[in-house]
Design goal:
This protein is mostly helical. The chain has one domain. The chain is built from 2 helices and no strands. The longest helix is centred in the last third of the chain and has 18 residues. The radius of gyration is 12 Å and the shape is globular.
């Protein structure tokens, strides 16, 4: 099992996810967040979705 923790902004998340995919050759990842406020949580998931869709190869 491979575990990874990333705390930071867009650039750090992008770098971390690229390394994770390179190290594991995974075709699926599971992401969790600990954000109480619903609007903040949705905004965070939207940012992650945009990053994955447009920036991760």
């Amino acid at each position: 099992m491979y575990r990874s923790l990333t705390i930071g902004g867009r650039d750090k998340l992008k770098t971390s996810m690229q390394k994770l995919l390179q190290d594991t050759s995974a075709d699926e990842i599971i992401i969790t967040t600990q954000i109480y406020d619903h609007k903040d949580r949705l905004r965070n998931w939207f940012r992650i979705a945009v990053l994955i869709y447009f920036n991760i190869n």
